Structure formats: structure tokens, C-alpha cells
């Protein structure tokens, strides 16, 4: 079942005996476990009713035994087992032997007082394996994949709504640009914004400058965005801010080169007919990052992007060999780029 369906069923008290929460978005996995805990276990019973195991250290047999053991002083219990690598194609260390037949047997006759959640941070499970097929037939698989660009914007607006405020027009997108795509980081920044604007308030673009702490990667992202939009004053202001923060110019060049490399790859793959979601998967990037890179790359021809990457490689060499002042080299690069 998909993630939204699983969360909806859990909220209604409709539980599966076994869940396999897998995917790259660990925050969603933890949210699913938290929702199950809240709906299944009374707060005062959590110490007795929630058990946790790491499957790189503990065999799955122990997890099943725990699920089959009657709960102590509580009506139901939750068993969480992390790192279920045996469900993927990843090579295991071999330190722990897992009896998958035992798990398959449990699926056929689960207890009515336990729920097991297996988690693994992997984009795909190995569907050639019998146990994965059995879990799929039991509708136990819950993918927790990275949100698409549109889903992420919707999710941010939804979290703001839960916190009692809203974003002004276009501010949610700017908020993601400033904060990044980590759901955990976004939630923390949403909480901060809620305290600032108050219940029923609206967060405007100018508020973000005061509230959101940007990483150097996000600043580079915005620096390039200013250049693409031919906002030279803002681009040089951003560069000056990075230099004042003692960021190493060579590191700034490296991060600028990384973003232009992404723009080149995204544009190249889009010209070959790939969708943004396919590109995100192929390059190992967040879909939102691909969407922004695609928008930035639209301002350049593929040949121009290749030339910019050559200029950055040359600038990196001259900086490292002492042939040019580092800050001056960066400023000259920005001027050439804007022209």
C-alpha cells in the first residue's frame, strides 16, 4: 500500500500485523512508527509495549519470538526491527543468520496482540526473493520514497497549516530553496516560523531572511539563482556574505561547479526525453533539486554549461596554484557569467 493509505488506515485504527517501511526518506519511516505508537499504545505503557531491534545484530527469529510472546501488563505491543537488509539486494555482512522461513510462517498466522515494523533505508526491495513476494501479497510493503517537487511543496504548506500559519504567494518554494529538502530540517524551520508569525499569520518573503538559517550549499544555490535571473547586486552581496563568514573560496568554486554539473546533466537527460522523476532517480538527487536545476538550466545552452564547467576547472587550478587571488578570481568569474 502507498504511504498515505497506510497512514490513513493507522489513524482509523486499522492495523496490519506486519509493515515493511522502506525508502530513502527516513523521516517518513519514523512518522509511520510514531503514528502506530500513538494509536496502538497508551503513553504510560510505552516503556513496556515498544521493543526495538537492530537486524544487523539480532536475528529475525528473535523479533518473531518477541512478537509471539504475550505482552506484559499491556493489551498490545509494537516491535520495531531496523536494517532489514535481507529484503534488499544488498550484500549482508554475514554476522547474523536470519531464518526467513520463520518470518514467512509468521505471516500466515500472526498474533493479534503484536504489530511488527521492519524498516530499511533502500529505494527498492529485491522482489525476486520469496519473502518479499509473500510480504507484497500480504500488502505489508509501505514505500517511504522522497517526495516529488510538487508533493514537497504541498507537504510544506500542509505542515504550516498544522502549525497554524500559511505561506504567502511563492514563499513555500522560496522556503524550500532556503532550507533544503530534508523533511526533518523543514519541520524544525516550520516550527520556528510558526512562533514568529503566530496563529493565523502569513509568512512573507522578507520574513525568511530573518528566520531561516541557510547552509553554504543553499547559499550557493541562491547565488546561482541570482546570476541566472541577472540579479548581479544580489549575487555579489551573497558572495560577500560567504566570504565574511570565512567560507573558503576554493570550496565555493567546488560547490558552484557541482550545481552547474547538475544543471548540465539534467539538461542533457531532459533533451534525451527523461522525465524529472527519472532524472532524480538516475542522478541520486531529490526531485525538487532536479526541478530547480531544470529551471536554472533553461537559461543556458548545453554548450554554454560545458564551457562554464571548463572555466570553473581552470579557476580552481589557478586558485590552487596561486596564479590568481581567490576572491578576485571568483568575482571575475561571476562578471563573465553574467555577461
Automatic annotation (TrEMBL):
InterPro entries in UniProt: DNA_pol3_clamp-load_cplx_C, DNA_pol3_delta-like_C, DNA_pol3_delta_N, DNA_polIII_delta, P-loop_NTPase
Catalytic activity: DNA(n) + a 2'-deoxyribonucleoside 5'-triphosphate = DNA(n+1) + diphosphate
Gene Ontology annotations for the cellular component aspect, listed alphabetically: DNA polymerase III complex
Domain DNA polymerase III delta N-terminal, chain residue ranges per copy: 19-144
MF terms (GO), sorted A to Z: DNA binding; DNA-directed DNA polymerase activity
GO biological process, one term: DNA-templated DNA replication
Domain (DNA polymerase III delta subunit-like C-terminal) ranges: 217-337
Annotated keywords: DNA replication, DNA-directed DNA polymerase, Nucleotidyltransferase, Transferase
EC number: 2.7.7.7
Taxonomy, superkingdom: Bacteria
Family: Belongs to the DNA polymerase HolA subunit family.
Entry protein name: DNA polymerase III subunit delta
Source organism (scientific name): Paenibacillus elgii
Amino acid at each position: 500500500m502507498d504511504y498515505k493509505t497506510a497512514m490513513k488506515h493507522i489513524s482509523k485504527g486499522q492495523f496490519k500485523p506486519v509493515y515493511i517501511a522502506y525508502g530513502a526518506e527516513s523521516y517518513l519511516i519514523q512518522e509511520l512508527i510514531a503514528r502506530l505508537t500513538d494509536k496502538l499504545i497508551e503513553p504510560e505503557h510505552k516503556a513496556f509495549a515498544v521493543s526495538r531491534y537492530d537486524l544487523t545484530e539480532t536475528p529475525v527469529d528473535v523479533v518473531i519470538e518477541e512478537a509471539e510472546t504475550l505482552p506484559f501488563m499491556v493489551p498490545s505491543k509494537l516491535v520495531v526491527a531496523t536494517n532489514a537488509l535481507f529484503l534488499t539486494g544488498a550484500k549482508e555482512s554475514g554476522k547474523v543468520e536470519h531464518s526467513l522461513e520463520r518470518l514467512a510462517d509468521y505471516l500466515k498466522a500472526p498474533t493479534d496482540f503484536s504489530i511488527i515494523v521492519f524498516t530499511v533505508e533502500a529505494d527498492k526491495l529485491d522482489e525476486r526473493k520469496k519473502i518479499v513476494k509473500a510480504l507484497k501479497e500480504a500488502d505489508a510493503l509501505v514505500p517511504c520514497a522522497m517526495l516529488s517537487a510538487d508533493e514537497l511543496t504541498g507537504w510544506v504548506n500542509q505542515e504550516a497549516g498544522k502549525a497554524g500559519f500559511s505561506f504567502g504567494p511563492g514563499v513555500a518554494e522560496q522556503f524550500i530553496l532556503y532550507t533544503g529538502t530534508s523533511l526533518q530540517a523543514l519541520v524544525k524551520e516550520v516550527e520556528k516560523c510558526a512562533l514568529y508569525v503566530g496563529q493565523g499569520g502569513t509568512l512573507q518573503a522578507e520574513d525568511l531572511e530573518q528566520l531561516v538559517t541557510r547552509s553554504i550549499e543553499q547559499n550557493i544555490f541562491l547565488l546561482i539563482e541570482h546570476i541566472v535571473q541577472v540579479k548581479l547586486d544580489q549575487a555579489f552581496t551573497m558572495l560577500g556574505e560567504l566570504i565574511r563568514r570565512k567560507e573558503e573560496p576554493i570550496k565555493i568554486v567546488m560547490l558552484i561547479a557541482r550545481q552547474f554539473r547538475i544543471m548540465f546533466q539534467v539538461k542533457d537527460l531532459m533533451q534525451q526525453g527523461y522525465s524529472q522523476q527519472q532524472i532524480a532517480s538516475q542522478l541520486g538527487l531529490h526531485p525538487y533539486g532536479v526541478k530547480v536545476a531544470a529551471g536554472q538550466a533553461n537559461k543556458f545552452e548545453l554548450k554554454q554549461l560545458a564551457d562554464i564547467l571548463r572555466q570553473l576547472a581552470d579557476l580552481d587550478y589557478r586558485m590552487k596554484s596561486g596564479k590568481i587571488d581567490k576572491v578576485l578570481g571568483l568575482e571575475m568569474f561571476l562578471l563573465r557569467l553574467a555577461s
